[in-house]
Structure formats: C-alpha cells, structure tokens
C-alpha cells in the first residue's frame, strides 16, 4: 500500500480534506491558496457573465459548494504529495543558497514546519480575494427570490400593485399575460 501511494502520490490527509485552505496556510503553502481563490473568483465572474441565477434559498450556491467539495477531496488525496514537493523544493533551494550547514539548519526551521499565523493569513486571503469582490460583484438572483427576500422599505415609492406588475411577468415568463389586480 505504501509503495502504491508513493508511486502515484495518493494518500489521504484528513486535515487537508476538512480544513483545505486553512491547512495550506498552516503548512505555509500560500501559492496554492491564491490559485484556488482566484479560481473560485474566476468561476464566479464567468457565471455572472453567463447569466447564472443564484438561489437565495440555499446556504451555499450549488456550484460553489461543488467546487469546495472538489477542492477538499483533491487536497485530501494529494495534499501530502503537494507538501512533500514543496519541502523538496525548499530543501534544494536552501542547499544551493547556503553552503554552511548551520545556516541551512536555520533556514530549514524558518521556511519549513507549520505556522498558526498562516491560518490567519489564509482567512485574510479568503476575505480579500473572495469575500470583498463577491460583495461588490452584482449577482443574478432569480425573480421569485427577488420578491421573496426583498423588503418594501427598499423601494418606498413602489406600491404592491406596481411591484407585482413589474415582477410578475418575469416570474410567469410571459409578458403578454394580463393579470387584474383589484384596487383596495
């Protein structure tokens, strides 16, 4: 089993699976965090331009949720190999930089190991790269959710009758439909 996992790079890391981006930060692997977050952001921008309608009924959007699960599974399966590759690159780089063994040991300790600050750094990156643009990027919300989750305080000049006249054709899908709304 161990030979097979070394041969194809597969072994399962539960910490990487459950804590994905925070695990990467804890292991000081910041480039993969940035690439993953930019991937999330790129997909959200692409979905926006394709006119994808987000559902407000769910805690997380199904597409974002599927991507999160995919990232978690991939990090669970390949996290150890990714970390091993990073360590080997760091060791190789330090060996070329410092001929003195004592200097190398110091750099190994600085560049290797774990970092609780890396977890905080991951959280900040998640907020900066994904949270802020997601807040400012407009999203397409389907018409039913628009009515369901909006408040009349948002548009005090629009009466309920006018609100239904504006949004009901969007919900029904047929602008030719005439609906009589009784005046009270």
Automatic annotation (TrEMBL):
Transmembrane segments: 9-26, 32-51, 63-83, 116-137
This protein's UniProt keywords: Membrane, Transmembrane, Transmembrane helix
InterPro entries: DUF2628
Keyword Transmembrane: yes
Pfam families: DUF2628 (PF10947)
Name of the molecule in the record: DUF2628 domain-containing protein
Record carries keyword Metal-binding: no
């Amino acid at each position: 089993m161990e030979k097979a996992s070394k041969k194809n790079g597969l072994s399962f890391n539960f910490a990487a699976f459950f804590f994905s981006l925070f695990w990467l930060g804890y292991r000081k692997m910041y480039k993969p965090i940035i690439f993953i977050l930019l991937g999330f952001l790129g997909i959200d921008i692409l979905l926006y331009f394709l006119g994808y309608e987000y559902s407000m009924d769910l805690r997380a959007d199904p597409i974002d949720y599927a991507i999160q699960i995919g990232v978690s599974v991939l990090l669970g399966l390949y996290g150890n190999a990714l970390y091993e590759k990073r360590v080997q690159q760091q060791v190789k780089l330090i060996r070329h930089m410092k001929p003195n063994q004592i200097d190398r040991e110091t750099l190994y300790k600085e560049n290797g190991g774990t970092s609780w600050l890396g977890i905080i750094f991951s959280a900040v990156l998640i907020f900066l790269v994904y949270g802020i643009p997601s807040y400012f990027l407009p999203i397409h919300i389907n018409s039913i959710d628009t009515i369901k989750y909006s408040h009349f305080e948002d548009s005090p000049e629009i009466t309920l009758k006018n609100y239904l006249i504006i949004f009901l054709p969007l919900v029904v899908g047929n602008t030719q439909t005439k609906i009589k709304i009784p005046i009270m």
